[in-house]
């Protein structure tokens, strides 16, 4: 039997071999059915009976409480990451992000994200870098450089940093280790060219896709906002 607490939540739609014209749903087709319905936030699939349940409810726990009966709960879209506002949700990492097509200076870009309940994106894990960089690469209209949420301390922007020196922090406060994930940086970066490169962006290297680069914050550039779980 299913977990009693899960049983309290009736699905909005139940799909089985009868409703699917004799073809039993798979976990994959169940997920696709959910993704294609704007109201569907979670799906529950039984690997034993091949029944697919679509829920408008959000299950923040993505794993079934009772795996022994073959039921698994999946969340496909959760309400703090709103697709209708243009955000994209990655179920694996929980990343909720949006590429802003308009161009702003870095400080104004971050303020614009804040006004939408988000901030400039922090690519502070390899998984997040992978998702964002690969997504940018498959979109041919992506701009050449895009601001993300890392900078030198803002009160130090007028200070001429010695060439090559860096003290980058993510907008969430953590110091950015430029040694870790070296493969995500463009060659020779960060280089603090002309001693005014106070922020970090994604730069399209054409051959190598998008890579990290330090750059001036005063250019007008597209930017990426990230919404974090409240
Ligand atoms: Ca640079």
Automatic annotation (TrEMBL):
Q: Where is this region: Disordered?
A: 1-34
| Composition skew (Basic and acidic residues), residue ranges | 1-19
Superkingdom to which the source organism belongs: Eukaryota
The C-type lectin domain, residue ranges: 92-226
**Which positions, given as ranges, span the membrane?**
none
Instruction: Locate the coiled-coil region(s) and give their ranges.
Output: none
Q: What name does this protein carry?
A: C-type lectin domain-containing protein
Q: Which organism is it from?
A: Batillaria attramentaria
